[in-house]
UniProtKB/TrEMBL annotation:
Signal peptide extent: none
GO biological process: tRNA modification
Binding-site positions, ATP: 59-64
Name used for this protein in its record: tRNA(Ile)-lysidine synthase
Organism: Streptomyces hundungensis
Amino acid sequence: MGPHPAVAAIRLAVRRVLHDLLNEHSRDHEAVATAVTAGAPAGTGARTAPEPLVLVACSGGADSMALASALAFESRKLSLRAGGITVDHGLQHGSDLRAAEVVSRMTGLGLEPAESIAVRVGREGGPEAAARDARYAALDAAAERHGAAAILLGHTRDDQAETVLLGLARGSGTRSLSGMAAVSGAAGRYRRPFLELDRQTARKACMVQSLPVWDDPHNADPAYTRSRLRQEGLPALEKALGKGVVEALARTAQLSRDDADALDAWALQADATVRDDAGLLECAKLFALPPAVRRRIVRREVIGAGAPAGSLFARHVEEVDKLITSWRGQRAINLPGRVVARRQGGRLVIRQS
């Protein structure tokens, strides 16, 4: 008799990602080996590729515990090592003890290394954004320290739907509506195997495997926007529109991602054609571009000048865009990260103050 359907589903999702990682690792090693052996003495053979390390980011919640268990199970059948990281945000009393307990659970699953990283959460962009920034910084550092090939994240289809709705509520563009990518980060570091699985599947998998889980009280705290959306917004939408809202929003994310990728590629090509010899953006040439392409160029320029991407919203970009399309001698525009945008001599000048 095979595993419970929920367990089979999470293992299959992780197995697919691990196979992708192994194929990428093999190709990268072969490319390096070819370059090295091309100039090596005759008879010198290529070395066998070392087993890559894959880490799971585990909070102790149902989604990440299900992911940790599937990674531990699948890694034993493949040529790779598996470890786990839990991040202690220090936002709740006893968080250090809870993080130590998560490490113990990961070790019990056979994950090695398994460690906790304490972070200090700032205030930039609000509590949720600040915690996310601190968490990813800690995960990036852990990946570099351990030489990890990838970090698995437990975001589900429900998380994707929430992300799309949050983007809609903020009046964000296509890129924001595309939600979370299955592969993201520097060199594809972050992988999200569960984006096509719902939250209940992960919880069921934990239950049938008798995996203890921790329900973060912040996830039900109405002080947090995502918590209110999860507890009140989505249930209200399903009551009004019927079941299938989460699945429809997830499909919207994928369609939006395809469109955003195409527009990003267009903007990247157009960028070089709208600059003067000094590299400054020329407003007349920007004006001739479609708005979706022009605003992408502007947004990338603002971020390049030092504005945090997570704090730069569509309204910021729209205000800068008005310097191009509705120029009436406006003052300079102050943007996140102490970045200032102004129009000078027909050029769009964006610099950090």
